[in-house]
C-alpha cells in the first residue's frame, strides 16, 4: 500500500459549528513545547527539557480577501469557536487512484488582533484576524490525532493523553 499525500483540494471556515464564514487563508498554530535548560552533574553540557504537555502561546491567523462583517464580529473580545474543514487529496500508487481524506480542526480562541488591511483598486484588502488559541483539536478521517485544552489540562497526542497521570497526581 503506497499512499502519497499530495495537497489540500478545498477547505472552509466555520464559526460556532454552523455559521459558514468562507475560505480565508489560514495560518495554523504551531506546537512549541515549553522548555527548561538543564545543566549540571551527569549532563555533558546543556539540554532543553520539554515540559511534557505544555505549549507556548499558539496563534491562529485568518486572512480574508475583503473587509467583512464576519471579520469584524470575530474581533469581539470573547471566546470564539472556529472550525476548519478540509479535504486532502492523496494518491494510492498501488491502485492508481486518488483518495480524499477529511481533516477537521476545531479551535476555541480569543481575538488579539484585527488588521482591516488596505484599500487598492482591483485588489484584495488582505483583512486579517489573529487569535490566541486556548483549545485545538485536529481530526483526520474522524480520528483525533491532537487535542490540546490548556485550561482543562488535556494534551492528547496520537490518541494518548500525556497529562492524564499529571492530573491525577495533582488532584484534578
Topology:
Layout: E1 3-15, E2 19-22, E3 25-27, E4 33-39, E5 46-55, E6 59-64, H1 69-73, E7 80-92, E8 97-115, E9 127-140, E10 143-149, E11 154-157, E12 160-161, H2 164-169
Antiparallel strand pairs: 1-2, 1-7, 3-6, 4-5, 6-9, 7-8, 8-9, 9-10, 10-11, 11-12
Brief sketch in words of this structure:
The chain is mainly beta and 172 residues long.
Question: What attributes characterize this protein structure?
Answer:
172 residues, mainly beta, Pnp Oxidase, Chain A, 10-stranded antiparallel sheet, 12 strands, 59% strand, Tail_tube
Instruction: Please count the beta strands (DSSP E, at least 2 residues each).
Output: 12
List SSEs in N-to-C order. EEEEEEHEEEEEEH
Average the pLDDT over all residues and give the rounded result. Answer: 95
Beta-strand content bin: over 45%
Helix content: under 10%
Q: What is the CATH class designation of the domain at 3-32 and 55-143?
A: Mainly Beta
Low-confidence stretches: none
Question: Biggest sheet, in brief?
Answer: 10 strands, antiparallel
Outline: globular
Q: Span from first to last CA?
A: 43 Å
The SS-based structural class is mainly beta
- Helix run count: 2
Tell me the radius of gyration: 20 Å
CATH architecture of the domain at 3-32 and 55-143: Roll
The name CATH uses for the topology of the domain at 3-32 and 55-143 is: Pnp Oxidase, Chain A
